[in-house]
User: Which sequence fits this backbone?
């Protein structure tokens, strides 16, 4: 099938436990809020709607358009979902999409899913919806331009936070990966923004009952505007700072103690990978030998059984 | 595309297929967690973790190399970890002067890079095995038992059911675009970039409206068939002795992996 992975899905193993758990915590709080808000404000009727909308985002990610030289633009859909369905429903829809992508396609890990949902579902919903709501009373041209621009900024913010998470985990050097990630997603984001604006224009023209000012104002309070604008400002300020002088950001993180949380947590439990009373003694060498031998034996037995099974079936 | 795409291995029979899905989810997450907290460079522990995976593959009757063949999906992401090789910590191994930038790979960085790739490679394989041995509706049911909010599991159930319907819808829309953009060989077909983007936007909008209206019809149809907001399953999920045995065995294995990783 023509399923193309979007390259913001972090696989397992790329983030340390501390970073994974931190973003799970944020994501669980946000998704929990989204569940209780939608349970309160929407009837059971909305559940099938959100499910089918999640399938829509999934399917829409397969739509691509040729740009040039064999590359093509792809679609994340977080901003569009939040604008059309409202921010809370948008977060739930994107959470389901990212969850199913991880479970069914192994696109994005399970332990790092909290981070993936935060980057692609929550950030995009807050920025996309917040900026759109800010100008919801303006003329159509302004609204569409802001929706498209918001989708672009949301993509860039997702790329920025992904880079920061990888860096906090000690997986990447910020000064190499951040400019690369932001550069690639500046291009991908253009496609995202243009498709978002064009899709909104089409929906507004065909079904004005699904997308109008009152509905948007009802779906999210003014707090979303504040959050969206703040996150946008943060992304706009941090991006050049981080790509221009990563050492500066590193210093800030070190001063605030982030770096320690991110990189050292697992290593401080047992310094230098040994415990005091065992250490580098003969005992650990012997144990290593036993485990190595068991490992080899296990492999041989498995290989033998597998070969025999194959011969049996032939 | 049909739902069978993912079900071709799920209908096989094995001890792993018959395990309670809750147990499988818990063991999968525990295994990935165990990989995540292993220290860098504990090769023996990574080897044991691989052995765990091979054992599970074997128990699932899928052949030893089953998950290996499908594990390339996380590889493209490895590119971002390459820069870990040039970690400032550790002893430099070489100096590569590329003119605009000088790269110094270090031993610490290299060990870190290989460990990241191994962790990711092992973790993605256990996830592949979970999906290959569990029917997706059972998986959703397991998540519900594991206290995931019902709103979310129901959305995911609908997502899974209509994913295939809407994917086919996408293929129809894409085919319609193909059919309308005929061109002579060697000559660029289609209009300007702006026109293409507008077309793709209309396709996304069209897909949205078709999905929206479909969800309305689905809801009406479900109401008339007695839908009460809860999706039922015919498979009773009861944790039996062999499930506890599998859980206990896996837990013991993971503890050994951690012991080997941290102490030896």
Assistant:
């Amino acid at each position: 099938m023509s399923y193309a992975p979007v390259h913001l899905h972090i696989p397992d193993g790329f983030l340390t436990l501390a970073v994974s758990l931190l973003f799970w915590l944020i994501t669980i709080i946000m998704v929990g809020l989204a569940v209780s808000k939608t349970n309160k404000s929407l009837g059971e009727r909305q559940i099938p709607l959100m499910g089918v909308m999640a399938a829509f985002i999934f399917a829409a990610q397969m739509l691509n358009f040729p740009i040039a030289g064999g590359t093509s633009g792809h679609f994340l859909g977080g901003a569009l979902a939040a604008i059309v369905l409202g921010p809370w429903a948008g977060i739930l829809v994107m959470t389901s999409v990212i969850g199913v992508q991880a479970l069914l396609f192994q696109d994005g890990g399970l332990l790092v899913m909290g981070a993936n949902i935060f980057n692609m579902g929550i950030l995009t919903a807050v920025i996309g919806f917040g900026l759109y709501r800010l100008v919801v009373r303006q003329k159509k041209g302004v609204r569409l331009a802001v929706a498209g621009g918001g989708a672009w900024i949301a993509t860039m913010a997702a790329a920025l936070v992904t880079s920061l998470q990888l860096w906090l985990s000690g997986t990447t050097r910020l000064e190499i990966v951040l400019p690369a990630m932001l550069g690639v997603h500046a291009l991908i984001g253009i496609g995202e923004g243009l498709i978002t604006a064009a899709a909104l224009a089409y929906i507004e023209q065909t079904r004005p009952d699904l997308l109008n000012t009152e509905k948007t104002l009802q779906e999210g309070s003014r707090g979303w505007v504040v959050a969206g604008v703040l996150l946008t400002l943060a992304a706009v300020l941090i991006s050049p700072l981080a790509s221009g002088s990563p050492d500066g950001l590193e210093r800030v993180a070190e001063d605030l103690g982030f770096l320690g949380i991110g990189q050292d947590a697992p290593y401080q439990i047992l310094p230098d990978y040994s415990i005091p009373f065992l250490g580098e003694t003969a005992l650990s060498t012997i144990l290593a030998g036993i485990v190595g031998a068991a490992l080899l034996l296990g492999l041989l037995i498995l290989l033998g059984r597998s070969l025999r099974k194959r011969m049996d079936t032939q | 595309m049909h739902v069978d795409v993912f079900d071709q291995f799920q209908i096989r029979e094995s001890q792993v297929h018959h395990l309670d899905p809750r147990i499988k989810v818990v063991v999968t997450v525990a295994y990935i967690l165990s990989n995540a907290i292993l220290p860098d460079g504990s090769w023996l522990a990574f080897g044991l973790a691989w052995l765990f995976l091979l054992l599970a593959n074997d128990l699932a009757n899928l052949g030893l190399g089953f998950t290996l063949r499908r594990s390339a999906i996380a590889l493209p992401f490895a590119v971002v970890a390459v820069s870990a090789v040039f970690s400032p910590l550790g002893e430099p191994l070489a100096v590569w002067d590329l003119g605009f930038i000088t790269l110094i790979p270090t031993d610490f960085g290299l060990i870190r890079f290989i460990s990241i790739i191994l962790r990711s490679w092992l973790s993605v394989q256990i996830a592949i095995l979970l999906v290959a041995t569990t029917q997706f509706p059972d998986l959703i049911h397991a998540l519900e038992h594991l206290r995931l909010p019902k709103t979310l599991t129901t959305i995911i159930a609908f997502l899974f059911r209509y994913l295939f319907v809407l994917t086919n819808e996408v293929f129809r829309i894409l085919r319609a675009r193909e059919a309308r953009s005929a061109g002579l060989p060697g000559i660029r077909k289609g209009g300007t970039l702006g026109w293409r983007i507008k077309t793709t936007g209309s396709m996304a909008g069209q897909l949205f409206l078709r999905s929206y209206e479909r969800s309305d019809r689905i809801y009406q149809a479900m109401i008339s068939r007695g839908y009460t907001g809860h999706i039922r399953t015919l498979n009773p999920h009861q944790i039996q002795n062999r499930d506890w045995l599998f859980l206990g065995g896996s837990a013991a294995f993971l503890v050994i992996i951690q012991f080997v990783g941290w102490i030896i």
Notes: The domain at 17-269 of chain A is CATH 1.10.1760.20 (Arp2/3 complex 21 kDa subunit ARPC3). DSSP finds twelve helices and two strands in chain A.
